[in-house]
Amino acid sequence: MNSEEMQSKKSPISAKAPESTDGKPPSDEDQLLQEELDMLVGRLSESNSELYLPALETIRDLIKSSTTSITSVPKPLKYMVSHYENMKKIYEKFHDEKCKQSCADIISVLAMTMGSSNECVFYRLHGDPDVNVSDWGHEYIRHLASEIASSWPSACRSYQERLLCLVKQIVPYTIAHNAEAEACDLLMEVDKLNLLDEFIDIESYPKITLYLQHCVPFVPEPENVNILHIILDLALRFGENYEAMRVALILNDSKIIRKVFHSCDDYLVKLQMGFLVSRQRISFSIIENSSDLSEEVAEILTNSRLNVYFMILARELDILEGKTPEDVYKSHLDPARVTMSQTQADSARNNLAASFVNGMINAGFGIDKIFVDFGNKWLYKNKDHGIISATASIGLLRLWDIDGGLAIIDKYLYSVDDYVKSGSLLACGILNCGVRDEVEPAHALLSDYLGSSNNLFKICSILGIGIAYSGSNSSLALGSLRPLLNSDDIEVLGVLAISIGLIAAGTCNSEDTELLLQQVVTCSMRKSFGSHSRFLYLALGLLYLGRQCESETLLESLQILEEPYQTYTKIIVEMCAFAGTGNVLKVQKLLHLCSEHSEQRKRSEKTDEEKTDWKFKKIDLSDIQTVAVLGVALISMGEDIGTEMAFRSFGHLMLYGEPCIRKSVPLAIALSSVSNPKMGILEMLNKFSHDNDMEVAHAAIFSLGLVGAGTNNARLALLLRQLAQYYAKDVNNLFLVRIAQGLTHLGKGTMSLSPYHSDKQIMKPVAVAAILCVLFSAIDMKNLIFGPYHYLIYTFVPAIEPRCLMTFDEKLNHLPVPVRVGIAVDTVAQAGKPKTITGFQTNTTPILLGAGERAELATDEYIPICKHLEGFVVLKRNPAYGK
Which among 31, 556, 589, 802 counts the fewest CB atoms within 10 Å? Predict the structure, then answer.
């Protein structure tokens, strides 16, 4: 085989005579083109140097002017393939700089079709500097960008500077030709994303920032944080203060949040930012030391009008009338023989369940039928600690209504019954949840009982303050709770840890970290690992919720703990720190931990005792594996692909995992899909609810309630009614079914516990903290939920949020407008202006939004202040309307 045939074999395109795609002989035009190119290359090999430059320019013009289908290689390039190696030799023999540069340009373009390693960019760097790379077309640009990205890591500093010159030519071209994603990818590969500021304009800004935001979950730290800071700077540069605030909330940095808020001069944008910040429950830091806030903005930030807006929603939807638990149970639909033989009328456990359900379904409405019909007698239909939860449900009924609710609860504070009085203290905290008032009524009422000798008063007041000030990082609330950490009562310490974790969630509060760490060390020395001590370890993690890198110092400090407490605490801190990030390495680490089996450990200890680490043999993996399963869901819940992969892993864990893993899998599934009842998840949890292991069944039933919380899902309601019949004789299971039914109809279907909002791009730390507190209570159902501590279920209250879209005019008056509501469509990196929703229906606000739904204005009369129509939205009149 001669050299020409070998070259033809190596080349991806045949160097022989051109052949048409349909197998017919080449046309005369194609034949002439090939002959002309052969002749021009032949001239370059001749001794007459005056022919070189004209020949090179002719070859260049033929390549540039070629037009063909995008699915095939241009014919000039196809016919020049056989001359590729010869062109490289010709390039070496040239001495004239102009000819050398022109030849290098042609070889660089030819290298695009040869699959050569980085030769395209090499010859481009030796080409004519006056020739812009965009002259050779989009495909050449893409190939050049890929080679720059591959050669960048190993390039020396001087070579990187030369590559950077090419990058600065490529980026503006790709942005101008609707390839913003490619420009971002190239800049991220060369670690020069900050150069975007030079090339971005107001038209390309929305697409670029949207793409970068969706890249964040897939980028390792600290690059993900750097990308968010770049998006923040771009938003501020283009005057997009609201978008800047969204990014600041994702960063969860109070200083940046305060800076963005106070740098905004537009009153309407400030109102809209107020709604967004108050939804995060972190407005406390903005209000403090701020004298320039208007009354309207201050009311929005403090959520003082949240109950008013919610009642407008209730009136518009015509759901003000109170409901009874029986309206949810629908026992009349059960077969007659079942209801007659299996109903346990007026039992304390059934009445306790009814108290919870009554509070849940009428939450925030202030109107129910149980207390109207029975009055205070209903409280005494419960027994002992059940009275606490029944009284506390009044706070849930009056949620967010400080003025009206405190007046009603006040009379219970003077009760001679300790259980009623304790429940009223908890009710005070519940109704104050998320609402700030300058007189601090929750602290004023509850702080007096923090030093009480009665443990019930102390515990309920502590939990009440925790729920009332959740997410606020209030120095007033934390200052009153910190002295109690010296207590020796583990029940008090457990509830205290929950409260501190809720108040300071995601703040990295150093003082609370130090105090909690001291208690954790004390617990580990006492070998304390009970139901309440778990909350101490959880609270330590909640302080670093979503803070990633900031948790490293704490993780180093945990080295002083003995095993298994060190591993247990580290897992909790890490999974909280990386909550919602989708960090694959952390998920793999947790799954590897879940793959261990106690039988394998025992066998290894017997057969190979010398090689087995003595520390590892002493570790009891049951509690560690339990939280590791929750950690998988917590880390992966931020993005859909990670959630789907975690869901698959949970199926394997249920088949092959230890009992401690199997009981926590349903809770992990609920954590990854709160208030989002997908059909596959409902079917899986329904299957687990009939498991032979009662702990698995308990967790699955409770998880069904969390998955369907506030959705009024008809399919789930039917499943729960069937479960109520199935477990009619099982007191504990029936109690959990009732709780799940109450959660499903939370606020008559107007509320949500989802920790994500703003098109699922912003995580609400306080909601995640609240859900984790509930799940840690559900890990030990026997001692907590079924025991005297069922009131810990109310720790879900800080996660409650209306799942509505309500629109207001510039004076914050309710403004009904038509909107289209449909399933959200992913438009990231798509050219043009693609549709953002599909299968939509047109309704008039206020409306309820479900998981995965998105809304658009269906009128041009008004312009929304924010792009994401969720929650409370301010509209301004369109000045161009009607012209």
Answer: 556
